[in-house]
Amino acid sequence: MDTDQDGVPDSADKCPKEPAATSDGCPIVDTDADGVPDAKDACPTEAGKAPCGCPIRDADGDKVIDELDKCPNVAGPIEGCPDPDPDRDGINDDADKCPTEPETKNGYQDDDGCPDEIPQKVKQFTGVIQGINFKTSDAALQPSSFPTLDKAVAVLKEFGDLKLEIQGHTDDQPVKAGARFADNQALSQARADSVKAYMVSKGIDEVRLSVKG
């Protein structure tokens, strides 16, 4: 028996009254006419593309399909999400007060994400500082150094987020035999440590001060 005369006997025809040249005798239904039969179409009423038959969705228009977009409702270039640091200054937008302008890395307010200039009060304590003196071949500060150092301490207190690197130096004369320090490197490091110790004694948090001989 082959009621619908489609070449598939009724015993094997799942649609015995609908002629169809298919193995199961049923016509292929493609409601949305997208070339993917309804039986295999995950979106049978919306035209799409094989293999799933669903349309490509990109709600935010960033060319990253919603299925792969980690931020489907916000356009962005990084896995579909906005760039967290568009000005490339190493400070993400959630902490960057100037997200479109890169931070000026100069040791002054380097964490706010904004370009800036070192204030004049701070500039006077950059580079070589005159007036900080030590005894020959020794790291002990001479009292004549205190006024200069006290001015530096006042600036550090005024600019509470300022961090300072203290560099100690010596001349090129070898350390005298029997001196406390083995060489000029050790002496210059000790001199930087002495300046730091003085500033800490005046109330500056030591975490704001680094030393280098």
Descriptive report:
The chain is mainly α. Among the domains are: 1-55, no CATH class; 120-212, OmpA-like domain (60s Ribosomal Protein L30, Chain: A), CATH 3.30.1330.60. It has helices at residues 120-123, 146-158, 184-201; strands at residues 164-167, 209-212. It has a two-stranded parallel sheet. It is rod-shaped, with a radius of gyration of 38 Å. The model has no long low-confidence stretch (mean pLDDT 87).
Mean pLDDT across all amino acids: 87
- In percent, how much strand structure appears in the residues? under 5%
Helix content range of the residues, please? 10-25%
DSSP, total strands? 2
Radius of gyration: 38 Å
Q: Main sheet?
A: 2 strands, parallel
Q: Order of strands in the sheet with the most strands? A: 1-2
The secondary structure category is mainly alpha
* Helix-strand topology string: HHEHE
Distance between the termini: 103 Å
Q: According to CATH, what is the topology of the domain at 120-212?
A: 60s Ribosomal Protein L30, Chain: A
Task: Supply the CATH class of the domain at 120-212.
Answer: Alpha Beta
The appropriate CATH architecture of the domain at 120-212 is: 2-Layer Sandwich
**CATH H-level superfamily title of the domain at 120-212:** OmpA-like domain
**Large-scale geometry:** rod-shaped
How many individual helices? 3
Low-confidence stretches: none
List key phrases describing it.
213 residues; 60s Ribosomal Protein L30, Chain: A; 3 helices; rod-shaped
Summarize the structure.
With 213 residues, the chain is mainly alpha-helical.
